[in-house]
Amino acid sequence: MALAARPEVLGFRVPTESGKALLVWGLEEGAEHSLFSVFSEFGLLYSVQVHRNAAVAGPGYYALVKFYSARDASRAQRTCNRQRLFQKSPLKVCICTRQKAFQQQALALRSYRCKELANYYLGFSGWSNRIITLQNISGFDLENEELGGLPERQCLKYLCVVEVTVPHHGICTRGLGIAEAYVENGRDPLEFVMKTGNVQKLAAEKALSGAFQKILLIVLENGKVAVEYNSAHEDPIDSLTDEELRGLIQINDLSLEQLNLEDEEEFLSDFCFDEEHLLEGRQSN
Question: Who contacts 75 (Cβ-Cβ below 8 Å, separation ≥6)?
């Protein structure tokens, strides 16, 4: 009797684990859109990156296709390898394993990617979010300060707390985000208003991403999804009432760098591949 496949645990972080990326080579020019269309049928994609072959490898292109799920990546590799999918010549597809995983920590997904992942596995109505508080922590009162009285160059800083709820699984988490920007001319109302809106939006996006970091998706082989609270990111603010939270928020040398969410860039040198598949692919060209 075959053993049941183990559930796959997905966090709201950039997928860096081995087995979640595919190397696709033997591509013709202009294949990026076709690649995305074909491989997205197997699961949600994090990225598709197409590159021109090095001069020593001859003409053509290769791509790195990254999934959130290693199970989806494996199915895609088995199905698509050596198949003529959207071009005359067959593609060669192999699974990448990260060579230097210990050198970098997985980064938090940006808020729009968190929404994409949540919508894919939970559905558009399977989760919700709301802003609990959005506070000006710039060191001056924006409501009572006249624009003409502001200094020429002022640091504008906002703090936001966002709550994410997954009602069918009894999960409720909160995230905190801080964003800042400099108003170069404090006497220019248009610049001041635009910078304020941008900083408020960025603080809310960081807070939303922070709330998702406390959620784990447990994906079963049959496609069903369970949701768990990530105890590694347990935070006291998740158990406070809205009033308690607003009253207790204090900023004590919080590092903006710790809350800065950057997209990860992938380099081919970070991965290793099945050399046997690569050699077979060369010989068949």
Answer: 42, 43
| Dist CA 37 CA 32 (whole Å) | 9
CB 208 within 8 A of CB 173: no
**Who wins on pLDDT, 114 or 271?**
114
What span, in angstroms and rounded, lies between the C-alpha atoms of 150 and 54? Answer: 55
Q: Which DSSP letter does residue 108 get?
A: B
Strand pairing partners for 172? Answer: 165
- Is the alpha carbon torsion for 21, 22, 25, 30 positive or negative? negative
Q: Is the pTM of this model over 0.90?
A: no
What does the DSSP 8-state code read for residue 266? P
d(CA 92, CA 23): 8
Element (H, E) at 129: strand 128-136
Alpha helices in 104-239 (DSSP H): 111-122, 189-212
- Top mean-pLDDT range of 16-20, 88-92, 208-212: 208-212
Nearest residue to 120 (alpha-carbon basis) of 7, 230, 10: 10
Q: Of 106, 96, 93, nearest to 19 (Cα)?
A: 96
Torsion sign across C-alpha atoms 179, 181, 187, 191: negative
Q: Which residue has the tokens 């050699």?
A: 279
